[in-house]
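Hi R.,

Here's the chain you asked about this morning:
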Amino acid sequence: MKASTGMWTTNIIRRRPKVKPTDILMSEHRVIEQVLDCLEKILDQCTSENKLDTASAKQAIEFFRGFADHCHHGKEEAKLFPVMEASGFSGGCSPVAVMLREHELGRLYIQGMDAAMEPAAAGDAEAMKWFIQHGQSYLKLLREHIRKEDICLFPAADHRLTERDQEQLLAEFERVEAEEIGHGTHEACLKIANELADRFGVPRAPGQPGSAIGSRHEH
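And here is the predicted structure, written out as tokens:
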């Protein structure tokens, strides 16, 4: 009986975790896409009505900075990407290096939208043009970025990273959510995402994550 129990325990310890770090990141992608769809609606209104919904634009930018960049890209840059680089995904032309450059480019587009927002709302035609241009560039970049991570980068990481790597990353994701991002940050960002979705008739992302901890326990 003891030997059998010991074998059963060993099997449990050795099995691959049910939820992978990339599962959490992909779930966050769906919420980011939800707000990208809302941004597209905001840009369409700018083009068709020559009018900027400032309140919605501010919420979208707040979400992209707080959730897409700080929470999501933050976990990738500080935790996932270093482990991937240590596992062989390194070099100036590596997939990780490309993703990092795209993160930086996305921040520039967000800064551009933010800088143009107030004058565009006040009727400055040139500022409106720049808001639309930066917004469209951000939409195209993020959608393609997400597609590359979902289809190529994350499956490659799942294949290369060891079970120990996966478990350590999950623990680090939880620590980052609790200690660095802060309690309630995800909930606040998700509230913005869903308010925008309901306002613009955009479907809510299924299985929305409350946090890395919540995502792990929900599966």
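One quick note: Residues 1-14, 209-219 have pLDDT under 50 and may be disordered.

Cheers,
M.
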